[in-house]
Design goal:
CATH architecture of the largest domain in chain A: 2-Layer Sandwich
Radius of gyration of chain B: 24 Å
Number of domains of chain B: 2
Strand order of the largest sheet of chain B: 4-3-5-6-7-8-9-14-13
Strand content of chain B: 15-25%
Largest sheet of chain B: 9 strands, mixed
Number of helices of chain B: 11
CATH superfamily of the largest domain in chain A: VC0802-like
Helix content of chain B: 25-40%
Helix content of chain A: 25-40%
Radius of gyration of chain A: 16 Å
Number of domains of chain A: 2
Number of strands of chain B: 21
CATH superfamily of the largest domain in chain B: ANL, N-terminal domain
Oligomer: heterodimer
Low-confidence stretches of chain A: none
Largest interface: A-B, 20 and 18 residues
CATH topology of the largest domain in chain A: VC0802-like
Number of strands of chain A: 6
CATH class of the largest domain in chain B: Alpha Beta
Mean pLDDT of chain B: 90
Order of helices and strands of chain A: EHEEHEHEEHH
Strand content of chain A: 25-35%
Distance between the termini of chain A: 24 Å
Structural class of chain B: alpha/beta
Number of helices of chain A: 5
Mean pLDDT of chain A: 91
Structural class of chain A: alpha+beta
Strand order of the largest sheet of chain A: 2-3-1-4-6-5
Shape of chain B: globular
CATH topology of the largest domain in chain B: Rossmann fold
Chain lengths: 148, 441
């Protein structure tokens, strides 16, 4: 299925917790493509796109962090006004609810990649594919990143 | 009230155990005056008597116990090891100790007469729970500083029954003794009894070939559910007894054949059931902290020892004929008890709530603060990795489920904090589950 892996980490609401996570990744020479943080007054959830997510998961779990891996949908759009709006229109027509979203850009391709988390990932993939939207698989992501 | 006895009604010392109320109060008053005179020589009490202008001559009736000072575990620690000794050391024939949270035990001491009294008190509850001279008893309690093994041993000797001093542990050897020596009576902690019952079932010995008929459990709190579980597995009757080394050891109270609470041996102890916050008596049948004054002890008599054990007292007459007050099982500890917005909360209730929610670890920390006029409670709970979700809604639902269960059990609206696995402090011994940040005097 044309999805990519996302790693989520439980963020305790205390100083230095995010820094500690980044430190572990730095030490293992693992690069983060993009990230987002959801926060509440009590705790946060750090979500990251990392090409070698399996290795990242291993080193983080070894350090005692709570790590969760799941599939998210990555849609590549032109990096220009209206790129994201078109996708949201499509989803709206099929009444697909977005739980959260974030993005990053491929500079050389002048494109943006929108990361979506859906309640029903399969349904969203079908809808976007049927509409002819290119969805990135993990291999596509790695390939594109190499050319950056 | 159970209407029927589960075994024959027997009394070891009918005269002492069925004293008429007036005679009992008179005996208590006489013994209280004597013990107050004895402890007036103990520096700890002498100083308090002088400071608070307590004149031993003012102690006349058993109700006057309320004029006397309390004694706490902390007092025992501060006067470690033998500051409360009320006789010369050459009169001591035995030392026992109880484990403490600080590593060192606190010691208690017995004269020859203390050991004799202790033996009789244990004999009383054993006979109340079915023991007869022709029985054989297997003691699977530890023998050592712990008072359980020796106390029950002396009680059985006093009754004249036979003893297999198996001591604790070595389950297969316990089963061998049960098969080969055919004891009718088992003495151990209730949790070890559950373990033994399981081992007996696994070994296929629950087919009537063992002679076990009675069991006496003490040393730790247990529940009616545990009694039902053990009696379902084994054809035995389980009896509850209560005691603590600071008061005398086992023998403070025990169940009779009706099993309607444990009869407190009031000719040797004055019991009070107090609200741990106000230290005022609670009504009969209401939960309070048990406070004991040992009336007859010579070596180590403590006045108004605060047990921190929460229980209820019942005074309705018991069909067995004993005239003494009865106590319920110990339902909690007053030192861990929190009064939050007027509600009594025990950490064990929070633990129970967490057990109802899948995916959280049983490690938690309760914090109470009072930012304004109202108390605020927060409960920090460790997540398990399998519960963690990238979706905020999943995490919020987990918090809500925990808060819902806490509310269902305690009636309190607590703020639930999710924390990472292994982030709460671990404790090798007694865990610290409560931090009270309120400035309560």
């Amino acid at each position: 299925m044309a999805t990519i892996k996302q790693l989520s980490l439980f963020l305790e609401n205390k100083p230095g917790h995010l820094k500690a996570i980044c430190g572990v990744l730095q030490e293992a020479e693992i690069n983060i493509v993009t990230l987002s943080i959801a926060d509440t007054e009590q705790f946060g959830i750090l979500r990251m796109i990392i090409p070698d997510w399996e290795q990242a998961r291993r080193v983080l779990e070894d350090k005692g962090f709570v790590v969760h891996a799941n599939d998210v949908v990555a849609v590549e759009v032109d990096d220009k006004p209206g790129g994201m709006a078109q996708i949201l229109n499509l989803l709206d027509q099929d009444q697909l609810n977005v739980e959260y979203a974030y993005a990053f850009t491929f500079r050389r391709r002048n494109s943006a990649v929108l990361i979506f988390r859906f309640n029903d990932t399969d349904e969203a993939v079908r809808t976007l594919t049927a509409a002819g939207r290119p969805l990135l698989a993990q291999a596509d992501l790695l390939q594109a990143l190499e050319r950056e | 009230m159970n209407a029927e006895p589960v075994t024959e009604n027997r009394l070891f010392n009918p005269e002492a155990e069925t004293l008429a109320p007036d005679a009992l109060r008179a005996l208590q008053a006489e013994r209280l005056r004597a013990v107050v005179a004895r402890v007036a020589q103990v520096p700890f009490y002498r100083e308090i008597f002088a400071r608070e202008k307590i004149d031993p001559a003012d102690i006349r009736t058993s109700d006057d116990v309320r004029r006397l000072p309390f004694t706490t575990k902390a007092d025992l620690r501060e006067n470690y090891p033998l500051g409360f000794l009320a006789v010369p050391r050459d009169r001591v024939v035995r030392y026992h100790g109880s484990s403490g949270t600080t590593g060192k035990p606190t010691f208690v001491a017995y004269t020859r007469n203390d050991v004799q009294v202790w033996s009789e008190l244990c004999a009383r509850f054993l006979v109340a729970g079915g023991l007869q001279p022709h029985h054989t008893c297997q003691i699977a309690f530890g023998y050592g500083l712990f008072t359980g093994g020796f106390g029950l041993h002396y009680g059985i000797e006093r009754v004249g029954a036979a003893i297999i001093p198996a001591a604790g542990g070595q389950t297969q050897r316990q089963l061998m003794l049960m098969q080969d020596l055919k004891p009718e009576v088992l003495i151990c902690t209730p949790s070890y009894a559950l373990h033994l019952a399981e081992a007996i079932r696994e070994a296929g010995l629950n087919d009537g070939r063992l002679a076990l008929r009675y069991a006496h459990f003490g040393g730790e709190p247990w529940t009616e559910d545990m009694r039902a579980a053990i009696e379902k597995d084994l054809p035995i009757l389980c009896f509850n007894n209560y005691g603590l080394s600071e008061v005398i050891g086992p023998g403070v109270s025990g169940e009779c054949a009706w099993r309607n609470g444990m009869h407190i041996q009031e000719d040797h102890f004055i019991v009070e059931c107090l609200d741990p916050a106000t230290l005022e008596p609670v009504a009969d049948g209401e939960p309070g902290e048990l406070v004991f004054t040992a009336l007859t002890k010579e070596a180590f008599p403590l006045l108004r020892y605060r047990t921190r054990d929460m229980a209820r007292l019942y005074r309705e007459p018991c069909p067995c004929g004993r005239t003494t007050v009865r106590m319920s099982r110990v339902t909690g500890r007053s030192d861990d008890m929190l009064v939050i917005r007027g509600v009594n909360v025990y950490p064990s209730q929070i633990e129970e709530a967490l057990l109802r929610v899948d995916g959280v670890a049983p490690h938690y920390l309760i914090e109470v603060s009072r930012p304004g006029a109202l108390d605020r409670v927060s409960v920090s709970v460790e997540m398990r990795p399998e519960t963690f979700s990238d979706r905020m809604i999943g995490m919020q639902q987990l918090r809500q489920r925990i808060a819902h269960e806490i509310h269902a059990i305690t009636g309190l609206h607590a703020e639930v904090n999710l924390v990472g696995p292994k982030t709460l402090e671990r404790f090798a011994g007694k865990a610290v589950r409560v931090k009270d940040h309120r400035a309560l005097s």
